[in-house]
Known about the structure:
alpha/beta; FAD/NAD(P)-binding domain; 2 domains; seven-stranded mixed sheet; five-stranded parallel sheet
Amino acid sequence: xxxxxxxxxxxxxxxxxxxxxxxxxxxxxxxxxxxxxxxxxxxxxxxxxxxxxxxxxxxxxxxxxxxxxxxxxxxxxxxxxxxxxxxxxxxxxxxxxxxxxxxxxxxxxxxxxxxxxxxxxxxxxxxxxxxxxxxxxxxxxxxxxxxxxxxxxxxxxxxxxxxxxxxxxxxxxxxxxxxxxxxxxxxxxxxxxxxxxxxxxxxxxxxxxxxxxxxxxxxxxxxxxxxxxxxxxxxxxxxxxxxxxxxxxxxxxxxxxxxxxxxxxxxxxxxxxxxxxxxxxxxxxxxxxxxxxxxxxxxxxxxxxxxxxxxxxxxxxxxxxxxxxxxxxxxxxxxxxxxxxxxxxxxxxxxxxxxxxxxxxxxxxxxxxxxxxxxxxxxxxxxxxx
Length: 386
């Protein structure tokens, strides 16, 4: 096996990095995951994740975790409601007579990010994850890499895998290509104890997902575990809007005033989201990796997930591509098909870039549709057709 007696370091403990660690450990590989979070109890931000049969669920199945996944996903959280700015419902999957099930062509079960991370962490060899390890830099040492972290810790690995997200510090060691701004910014908020704090929205959401479409302005939200709702105001903007808008992200009133001004004509029903959200709000400029990116494979360094191919969230493919990366890279490195690590990595990267570019293009196109003047009509046509 290519990784026999090798030290493998995965930088980043998100779904992609942890899935890869599990799959490699199943093949007897010695692997460490270096994660910047202080410990496993750190709150995981972001919307729930919908896993797809041919990618995210395929990786979960290969890792032997499908049964525990089925015991922990959120039934009904995949059901979508679509409204206009006045909160009038135009489409609801809650009216469907029966639940979709595993094996159905269009079933995309949702799971809370924190729950998925716990499932993956619990499946790993004890002490696989080295917490409070914020990667700073590395340099070649022998046939591998000597890595430095912000806590002064230094360690060596024969193979380094970057799973450190959209703002990857390792990506520049692989390629000069930089993600490009998509033209969309999303302002994220979270509401705890939602049934009490935002009863109208909670009732409208019904434990699922909701998309409200206006003219170039959207509100997107979803049910999370523990009666929490995550939501995003999504809109076209300049790239540096989050730095120049003058908003106080720690002040609910400031953000509510901005919403009233920037979303004119939207119902007052939405106001409770901004009034009751936990602060700070988080602005997220949305980026996408170049669709035609290419680089020369290295024998001891590669990328997975957003570090390799960050894409907008408008097709639900980000986490699925990351977990499929983990599955395909693990296979390339451990299945005996290639003579050298460089050949295995080159084969994985070529296929990864090709399929990720297809999904990124779909995500970009969806983003344009969702923020057009006719978004409501366009998205209703799409969902009714599916």
